[in-house]
Amino acid sequence: MSGEIEFDSVTKHYPVPRRARRQGADASAGPAVNAFSATIAQGTTTVLLGSSGSGKTTLMRMVNRMVEPTSGRVLIDGEDVAGRDPVVLRRSIGYVMQNGGLLPHRRVIDNITLVPRLNGTSRADAAHRARELMGILGLDLALAERYPHELSGGQAQRVGVARALAADPAILLMDEPFGAVDPLVRRELQAETARLQRELGKTILFVTHDVDEALALGDEIIVLREGGRIAQRGTGPQILHHPADAFVERFLGLDDHIRASRLRETVIRDSGAGSPSSPAPAPEAAEVARP
Ligand SMILES: Nc1ncnc2c1ncn2[C@@H]1O[C@H](COP(=O)(O)OP(=O)(O)OP(=O)(O)O)[C@@H](O)[C@H]1O
């Protein structure tokens, strides 16, 4: 698997439970995602940026078949995921959740080695790789024997990332992975994610509603409106300098002129772009826009 993801006009209607309908819910309410199409290039970080309920998680979970589209297709390297065994597919794709998603009754080392072991990797090889990943993610090896509740929020998120990387997937799905940690640790984790991506060249699909995080990480950003409709797609500098409309401008906070010039100056300075119309920056240039 090399890791290109293609969303081909995917739509998702969640069923409205009968009880909710009886209580007045609108059964004809719009879909969670409506005819979304986008190709996510292999080896890049693409951020789905949108407010709560815009369909980000729904889109992400279509990639590993945790959500099935009502219509449309998701293809990985040209192959429709609908034809793949969901369990095998999920084990081949890294997935990092907001709370780390660690198994509470398993030690850190067992959490990280879980998927490689299920895939048939020997205990010794899996443990060796797990320790390597802990090192890469700046986790003290002594933590390997601890249980998740004995970790700080930042450590648990790092373990979550290590676990997602353990089976060496080409694709990493990251769903608001740093939402629950404090701003300082969050920025450290963002910088580490950017570094990892440069070193390992994974295709990362990253969900957030945090504009600064999107600018810090995304080679490309897809700004979503309600119903998973694309408001704008582009690099951070492109979106900052040429917001498509008033919705994008407001969502990014560009109607606040002080914030707008801070964001633009930081992105230009750190990308070395020099002018608003300069071409897209190198991926590392996006590591910059800090609050
Ligand atoms: N299992 C479900 N059953 C019914 N409706 C759902 C389900 N999951 C999501 N939805 C609805 O679909 C819409 C999109 O939800 P989704 O979780 O994809 O949005 P999101 O952008 O990830 O939001 P958040 O940032 O709050 O996580 C919302 O209106 C939500 O209520």
TrEMBL record:
Domain of life from the UniProt record: Bacteria
EC numbers, comma separated: 7.6.2.9
Keywords attached to this entry: ATP-binding, Nucleotide-binding, Transport
Enzyme class: translocase
Pfam families on file: ABC_tran
Residue span, ABC transporter domain: 5-252
GO terms, molecular function: ABC-type quaternary ammonium compound transporting activity; ATP binding; ATP hydrolysis activity
Annotated region (Disordered), positions in chain: 1-28, 269-291
PANTHER family named among the record's database cross-references: GLYCINE BETAINE/PROLINE BETAINE TRANSPORT SYSTEM ATP-BINDING PROTEIN PROV (PTHR43869), GLYCINE BETAINE_PROLINE BETAINE TRANSPORT SYSTEM ATP-BINDING PROTEIN PROV (PTHR43869:SF1)
Name of the protein this chain belongs to: ABC-type quaternary amine transporter
Annotated organism of origin: Actinomyces gaoshouyii
